[in-house]
C-alpha cells in the first residue's frame, strides 16, 4: 500500500508552506495562518472524493476507529462483531472504547463471513465492525441487510481500503461511520493520520467533539471559554498531515490504476496453473489491487511455494500473527477459528507496489509454477 512511493515536489511544497506560515495546529491562530486551514480543506476534499457528507481528520486509523465507536455512544461492555482476521488495532479500538470484541470467521474473500455474523448476533450485540481487508470489499449488501433486520449499526473499518468501491459506492460510506488510515504503509499516506466519515450530522458532531476533548469548535468564542460538549480525548490531525493528505489524494487514482496494471500482469502468470486458486472478491472491479492473494491446495504446499518465492527474491506477505493469532490472544475466546486458520494457512500474498518489476516477478512466478 505504497503512497510513500510517490512522494514528490507536491508534498514537499505543501509541507514547506505550512512551516513557513508557522502554524501546525488545525484550530485558531487566524492571522498568523493567513486564513489557511489545511485540515478543514483535506476533510472537505476527502468527503467529496468518497461521496460522504462529513469527514473528520484524526491522528491515526486506530484513532478513527475509537472515535467512531465512541461517537455511537454504545452501552459499555456490550459486544461488537468483527473478523478474527484483521490488524490488531481493530480489536484494540473496541476494547479501548469499553466494549467487548466478538470475533467472527472469515471466508475465502479474506473478509468477515456474513453467515458467522448471523450466528454470533445476540441481545448483547451493539455494533458490527466489518473490515475491508487488503483493499477489497466485504459483502456489504448482505451485511447491511443483517444490520437493518437486527437494528444494529455498522462501523466500517476501511483503513486498508482507501478508494475502494462496492457496487459503485465508495467503501466507508455504507455504515453509520467509515474509518480510514493514512499511516506510512497505506495507499494514501500522511505518515500517520486517519479519517472518520459519516452522512449523519449528529454523529459527525459527536465524533468532532470527542476527538478534541469535547470542544464544540465555535467560531464566535475563544477556544479557552467554550463549553465542553462531552468527554473526549486528543485525536486531532495536524496541518502537516493534512498538507500531505491533500497532495496524496490527487495522486490516489493514478496509484490505484498502476496497482491494477501491475497486479494483472502478475496474476496472468499464475492463473494458467490449476493448483492455484484466487481470493474471492465481492467486487473485483472495485478493489484497489494493493495485494494479490491466492491459495495453494494445503498448508504444506503453500509453505513450500513461499519458500520458493523467498529463494527467488520475492517476499510473501505475513498474515498470521498480527492479523490473526494476536487477536485471538487479546480476546481470549474459546473458539479456535479452524475454518479461518485453514484458509490463511493455504494463502499466499504478494504486496503490489507502484514501483515494482511486475514483468520480472511474473516471469519468476511462472518459472516457480512450472517447476512446482
Overview of this structure, please?
With 372 residues, this protein is of the alpha/beta class. It has two domains: 248 residues, Type I PLP-dependent aspartate aminotransferase-like (Major domain) (Aspartate Aminotransferase, domain 2, 3-Layer(aba) Sandwich), CATH 3.40.640.10; 120 residues, Aspartate Aminotransferase, domain 1. It is built from twelve helices and twelve strands. The strands form four sheets. The protein has a four-stranded mixed β-sheet with strand order 1-9-8-5. A hairpin with a 2-residue loop joins strand 6 and strand 7. Helix 3 runs parallel beside helix 4, helix 3 crosses helix 7 and helix 8 packs parallel to helix 12. The radius of gyration is 21 Å and the shape is globular. The mean pLDDT is 97.
Features:
Aspartate Aminotransferase, domain 2; 3-stranded parallel β-sheet; 4-stranded mixed β-sheet; 372 residues; 2 domains; alpha/beta; Aspartate Aminotransferase, domain 1
Topology diagram in text:
Layout: H1 9-21, H2 38-50, E1 54-58, H3 61-71, E2 79-83, H4 88-96, E3 100-104, H5 114-120, E4 125-128, H6 140-150, E5 155-157, E6 165-166, E7 169-170, E8 177-181, E9 194-198, H7 201-210, H8 239-270, E10 277-278, E11 291-295, H9 299-311, H10 321-331, H11 338-346, E12 347-351, H12 358-371
Parallel strand pairs: 2-3, 2-4, 5-8
Antiparallel strand pairs: 1-9, 6-7, 8-9, 10-11, 11-12
Amino acid at each position: 500500500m505504497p503512497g510513500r512511493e510517490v512522494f514528490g515536489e507536491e508534498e514537499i511544497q505543501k509541507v514547506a508552506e505550512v512551516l513557513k506560515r508557522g502554524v501546525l495546529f488545525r484550530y485558531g491562530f487566524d492571522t498568523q495562518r493567513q486564513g489557511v486551514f489545511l485540515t478543514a480543506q483535506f476533510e472537505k476534499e476527502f468527503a467529496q472524493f468518497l461521496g460522504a457528507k462529513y469527514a473528520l481528520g484524526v491522528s491515526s486509523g486506530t484513532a478513527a476507529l475509537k472515535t467512531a465507536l465512541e461517537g455511537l455512544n454504545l452501552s459499555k461492555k456490550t459486544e461488537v462483531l468483527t473478523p478474527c482476521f484483521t490488524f490488531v488495532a481493530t480489536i484494540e479500538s473496541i476494547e479501548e472504547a469499553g466494549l467487548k470484541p466478538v470475533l467472527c470467521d472469515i471466508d475465502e474473500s479474506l473478509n468477515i463471513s456474513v453467515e458467522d455474523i448471523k450466528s454470533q448476533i445476540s441481545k448483547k450485540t451493539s455494533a458490527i465492525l466489518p473490515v475491508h481487508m487488503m483493499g477489497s470489499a466485504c459483502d456489504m449488501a448482505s451485511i447491511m441487510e443483517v444490520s437493518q433486520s437486527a437494528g444494529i449499526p455498522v462501523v466500517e473499518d476501511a483503513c486498508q481500503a482507501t478508494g475502494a468501491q462496492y457496487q459503485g459506492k465508495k467503501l466507508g460510506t455504507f455504515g453509520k461511520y467509515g474509518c480510514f488510515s493514512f499511516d506510512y504503509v497505506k495507499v494514501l499516506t500522511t505518515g500517520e493520520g486517519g479519517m472518520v466519515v459519516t452522512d449523519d450530522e449528529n454523529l459527525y458532531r459527536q465524533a468532532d467533539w470527542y476527538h478534541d476533548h469535547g470542544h464544540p469548535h465555535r467560531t464566535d468564542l475563544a477556544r479557552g471559554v467554550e463549553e465542553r460538549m462531552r468527554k473526549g480525548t486528543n485525536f486531532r490531525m495536524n496541518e502537516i498531515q493534512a498538507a500531505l493528505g491533500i497532495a496524496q489524494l490527487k495522486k490516489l487514482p493514478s496509484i490505484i490504476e498502476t496497482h491494477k496494471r501491475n497486479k494483472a500482469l502478475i496474476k496472468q502468470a499464475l492463473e494458467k496453473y490449476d493448483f492455484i486458486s484466487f481470493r474471492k472478491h465481492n467486487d473485483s472491479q472495485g478493489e484497489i489491487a494493493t495485494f494479490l492473494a491466492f491459495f495453494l491446495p494445503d498448508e504444506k504446499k503453500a509453505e513450500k511455494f513461499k519458500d520458493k518465492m523467498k529463494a527467488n527474491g520475492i517476499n510473501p506477505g505475513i498474515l498470521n500473527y498480527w492479523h490473526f493469532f494476536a487477536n485471538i490472544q487479546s480476546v481470549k475466546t474459546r473458539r479456535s477459528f479452524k475454518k479461518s486458520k485453514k484458509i490463511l494457512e493455504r494463502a499466499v500474498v504478494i504486496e503490489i507496489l507502484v514501483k515494482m518489476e511486475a514483468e520480472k516477478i511474473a516471469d519468476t512466478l511462472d518459472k516457480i509454477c512450472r517447476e512446482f
